[in-house]
Design brief:
Radius of gyration: 23 Å
Shape: flat
Structural class: mainly alpha
Number of helices: 9
Order of helices and strands: HHHHEEEHHHHH
Strand order of the largest sheet: 1-3-2
Helix content: 55-70%
Number of strands: 3
Distance between the termini: 38 Å
Length: 262
Amino acid sequence: MNHRHGHGHGPRSIDRLAYQSGMGGWNPVFKTTLAVGTLVLCLAADRPAVSVAVIVALAALQKGKGGLPLQDYLGLLLVPLTFLLLGGAAVACDVSAAPAGDWNLPLPWFYLCASADSVRFAAALVLKALGAVSAMYLLALTTTACELVDVLRRAHLPPLLCELMYLIYRFVFVLLDMYGRMRQAAGARLGWRDFRSSCRSFGGTAGNLLVLALRRSRVYADAMTARGYDGDLRFLEEEKPVRGTQIAWMLLFWAVLVALAI
């Protein structure tokens, strides 16, 4: 499949990729089971080999079956990886008044120290977290919001909680659209030309966004009531049976992870 993917990494991009994914025809319950099971194994194993296997295997799955270009997938991973590396650096390094550990960097009034054990621990922690993120990306980049709501209902979560999750998720896009228009309008009036103007424009945009959000929410509530909304959101779901080969590959993948952990 040849999809045209955007380079943005925001909610719009992730939502679009979920609809365009080549794994969109897979059963959502199966994808949820695969993602959550892989996440649990990655966290419980606490082995760098397992984390690396999860990262590589899920990246290959996203490219091979999902049709997602590797460059776009790595771009999505780069966002959490930046925070993970910063957190890993904070775990690996320590502050000391005197030189300590295997490496130390002299700075004014203190030393920045690190040891081989702390670096290995931080690297394993970053890999484990990145493996967990990869497992969640498997679900987020291949499963639409309405399918996730259906999975949560089958898991017997309270209907009110499921509906609030879906409505809030959808309303995020409404707010993004309104904010984009107001930001463009402020830019046309040179509202971002300097720091003082930017502060004033930001305050005005935030205030207008709050008012418009409340107004738009009332309009959408009236529209839903006019269409027969009775407090229960229902979606027309396509039947997506689970194939035996999919279950076999999932069990084999999990068996490999368990073997690496042992």
